[in-house]
Design a protein that fits this description.
about 425 residues; alpha/beta; three-stranded antiparallel sheet; globular
Length: about 425
């Protein structure tokens, strides 16, 4: 088929008529399909039910049911240290979600400063760098603290580092959020060069922090996943030991509402955070920490468990990608990246067509992530990016949802070309 941009008006109208008949057929089905969030499906959650078998809660002479052990039980700290490639002393175990760890860290910076720095609340007009398209929850945290968000374009190997290196010359720029492996939503893993350039940054702000949200550190779709350079191995080369705060969780490994999170950081940062935690809580859920240690055993146990997730996720991703290729490929109206892991597919449609695509999907019973959410302030300057979350729907529902999405993209682009 011709590219839409090369079609005559008559050809576009004929194509629109055919697509509208398909679309009306989908609408008549009265569907309610959800591709809005990266939630694990029921079959994924079922993989972790053995967690609920009651273990012995007296471990190494410690009664896990009681107060204490603020940093997390030693076996759990070691499990995450092995996963992230740091020492156990540089790990803190948190609550069920890494989002809480990030929010609390930003709150600490805002109200009390970091490692003795001036509280950010005392500095007017502070800013944060946001690789885009990016994770909406990062933007929500920054917006809550009234921190100005600065877009940094994502390239094929990570954030535009020329832009980052220029922007950090401003001492009001206090940090940057990153999803370095299988980025949300594009599925990009930062190259070694990008990781090294981030590790080597010399920001004007001495309390500049990179929030290294390694949410998909072990969420492969294929046996040969992407490799991410361990930034903690190279930070000391540049005297930047304190610049990075890494977080991850078991939210998409076991139970999103009942998992555990972990934070990795330098000795100085760990001590600084621990001082705040000593006022914030007495201990997080040690019983749940031990459940996870017992369930996984070690990092090899995590890898084996995540292969089961991959076996469920891979067909879903491949189905959506096949529909994108079959329905949108060669028409010059959309582009996408084929991720090798993570939870999302990032679809870029013709400029000015993403919101309309979202409207058409909604009318036909398909809920997408709110269009624009992948940019700060919900302001996608090109109105082009759509985040697809294939994980939650059963395969048969996902098949229909992907078809409706593709037809909606095609209809919205034809409307744009026809000037409707």
């Amino acid at each position: 088929m011709k590219k839409y941009s090369e079609m005559t008006r008559e050809e576009l109208l004929a194509e629109q008529k055919t697509l509208k008949e398909r679309y009306d057929g989908y609408k008549a089905m009265g569907l309610k399909l959800d591709m809005s969030r990266g939630k694990p499906g029921k079959d994924q959650l079922d993989l972790s039910m053995d967690l609920l078998n009651d273990p012995d809660y007296i471990v190494d002479g410690i009664d896990l049911r009681n107060y204490g052990i603020l940093e997390g039980i030693p076996s759990c700290r070691k499990l995450f240290a092995d996963l992230l490639g740091v020492e156990p002393k540089n790990i803190l175990i948190g609550p069920n979600a890494s989002l809480s760890l990030m929010f609390d860290y930003m709150a600490q910076a805002y109200s009390h400063g970091l490692c003795g720095s001036v509280p950010w609340n005392d500095i007017p007009d502070i800013k944060f760098l946001c690789p885009v398209p990016g994770y909406d929850r990062h933007f929500t945290i920054l917006d809550y603290f009234h921190i100005k968000m600065i877009n940094v374009p994502m390239k094929s190997d990570g954030p535009d580092m020329d832009a980052v290196e220029e922007l950090i010359k401003d001492e009001k720029v206090k940090g940057m959020f990153c999803v370095p492996k299988y980025s949300n939503p594009q599925g990009i893993t930062y190259s070694d060069e990008v990781v090294r350039r981030i590790a080597a940054l010399k920001p004007a702000a001495k309390d500049f922090r990179v929030i290294w949200d390694n949410a998909y550190c072990i969420h492969e779709l294929y046996d040969e996943g992407d490799e991410l350079l361990n930034i903690f191995d190279i930070l000391p080369e540049y005297g930047n030991d304190d610049m990075v705060i890494e977080v991850c969780s078991t939210s998409k490994m076991t139970f999103p509402g009942a998992g555990i999170s972990a934070l990795a950081a330098s000795d100085n940062n760990i001590e600084d955070i621990r001082n705040r935690l000593n006022c914030q809580t007495i201990s997080y859920d040690k019983m749940n920490q031990y459940r996870h240690v017992r369930f996984f055993g070690d990092v090899d146990g995590i890898r084996a468990h995540m292969k089961k997730h991959a076996a469920i996720m891979r067909p879903k991703f491949e189905m959506v990608l096949a529909h994108l290729e079959n329905e949108l490929g060669g028409k010059d109206i959309a582009s996408w990246i084929k991720p090798r892991g993570g939870y999302f597919i990032s679809l870029d449609v013709m400029n000015g067509c993403a919101k309309r695509t979202g409207e058409l999907c909604k009318e036909a019973g398909v809920t997408l992530t709110t269009v624009g959410a992948t940019y700060p302030y919900f302001n996608d300057p090109n109105d082009s990016n759509i985040r697809i979350a294939p994980s939650l729907p059963p395969v048969e529902e996902l098949d229909l949802a992907a078809q409706i999405l593709c037809v909606s993209v095609r209809l919205s682009c034809i409307e744009k070309l026809l000037g409707e």
